[in-house]
Amino acid sequence: MSASDISRQCDLAIVGGGAAGVLVALQALRGASRALHIALFEPASALAQGIAYATPWPEHLLNVPVGKMSALPDAPDDFLAYLLQVDAFPGRSRDALAADYAPRRLYADYLQARLEQAGAASAARLEVVHAAVLGLQPGPQSQQLTLASGEQWQARQVVLACGNSMRPLPVPGAEALPPGKVVDAWDYDGVRLLAGDGDLAIIGSGLSMADSVVALANAGHRGRIHVLSRHALLPLAHAHGGAATFDPQPLLAMPLRQKLRVLRGHARDAAAQGLPWQAVMERIRPLGQALWRGLDAADQRRFLRHAVRYWDVHRHRIAEQVHAQVDVLERSGQLQRHRARLDTVLVLDGTLQVHAHGANGGFAPLQVSALINATGVETRATAMRNPLVQQLLADGHARPGPHGLGLDTSVEHGQLLDANGQPHPAVQVVGSLRIGTLWESLAIPELRGQAQQAARAAVA
Ligand SMILES: Cc1cc2nc3c(=O)[nH]c(=O)nc-3n(C[C@H](O)[C@H](O)[C@H](O)COP(=O)(O)OP(=O)(O)OC[C@H]3O[C@@H](n4cnc5c(N)ncnc54)[C@H](O)[C@@H]3O)c2cc1C
Q1: What is the mean pLDDT, run by run of 10 residues, along the chain of 460 residues?
Q2: CA distance 197 to 55
Q3: Nearest CA to ligand 1 atom 34
Q4: Which of 117, 134, 135 is nearest to 126 (CA)?
Q5: Which atom of ligand 1 lies at the shortest distance from residue 131's CA?
Q6: Are 202 and 227 spatial neighbours (Cβ–Cβ below 8 Å)?
Q7: Which option is the CATH number for 174-236+318-373: 3.30.470.20, 3.30.830.10, 3.50.50.60, 3.90.1210.10?
Q8: Quick check: CB of 215 below 6 Å from ligand 1?
Q9: Per its UniProt entry, which superkingdom is the organism in (predicted)?
Q10: For the domain bounded by 3-165+379-459, which CATH number is listed?
């Protein structure tokens, strides 16, 4: 009998054991009132790490304060309570810790601890299967999953929590460059191993660039760091203090240009009251999905073409200490920022020659010893290097979301929509795959709500 002849059964299959999948499992265990069998599929050996929380390095900080990172919508201080309970920061006061940005690795520890507790107290049973799901065939009664080993599973309900795929380096022949010369920013140990006297280039100037820069600095890098990106905008810093107090509701019905104009006005008002512009972003933060959905398709396209980069640096901010460290390196000249589009990378005598063209044409090629791909999350469904996503699209079980971003899902229930726009009632999606539908669907404040909703529907 081959592996594919064996078909195992479960009530709920969760595909992906990063933060989002673990949040779904946690909520399903808490909500189950009978002996359900929940299977969580994750190829990595550790749960809850995914991409963001897999870093072991203390300089990689959360970009959301501790007080807002609870896994549980009904217990907003739960992450804070966990850090206090394990005495992760001896001597730090509760209030100071709530406003602080903790090392990201602690967040995976927290989710693992809460999952274990929920499993011990639940009527349901959680089975972790360390394998990737390569295929999903939704059916009226049962959903069939195929694992990389060929093993088959039948599930009553499925939640897809496949998370983030990295964009490939945007140059032809990138995959043929010598191993060790091109490192992904999410290879946290690999980046640190590049530290030394040689010059390096980082492609991309967002959050993953900041991760790489602080890792290199903390590993004692002495060479120059060239940061190349089309807009060369660096992430901006958080600021202490709360949200502004204006009523954000009228923004929802406004077209894009008016929204942006009114927001700039609120930022000026905030400044007049001695508040930083960040207070305005905090005020509209909970409305991210409504702001996106309130734009018509043409305005969403305009936003993606003209405003998204400016939006991203204001919305996805970094801890002040990370920002300060990047800033010091730039002021010292060790970090050099280039507004340029990458063309080719050549290998010459063991070094890389990076060719690009600047906004105004000319750009002298850079000689570097290695290159870091920090181009970030791939949001276009058809370009995602996840075999399951590609199988769902190829078989018509899914279609790209609005503007080709992520997979299309129903707004209310997060159900996967097929090629004809029909929902699969037993297949729900959480997290970044919903970006086209919701836009704000990446960070824990959104994921914990989606996970609770998906788990409730699945165990009902
Ligand atoms: C570098 C970085 C830092 C971040 N920092 C923060 C932060 O401080 N605060 C915050 O709120 N958000 C942060 N985010 C946003 C982050 O995306 C979410 O908080 C969260 O980590 C997303 O978890 P996820 O499970 O959806 O995705 P991922 O972390 O990408 O995990 C997805 C998991 O699914 C598995 N998987 C994928 N496909 C399959 C398959 N076919 N079969 C089985 N398993 C599969 C993968 O192996 C992976 O473990 C950060 C994101 C990044 C990239």
Answers
A1: 71 98 98 96 98 97 97 97 97 96 98 98 98 97 96 98 92 86 96 97 97 98 97 94 90 97 96 95 96 97 96 96 97 97 92 90 91 96 97 98 98 97 98 98 97 95
A2: 24
A3: 16
A4: 117
A5: 43
A6: yes
A7: 3.50.50.60
A8: no
A9: Bacteria
A10: 3.50.50.60
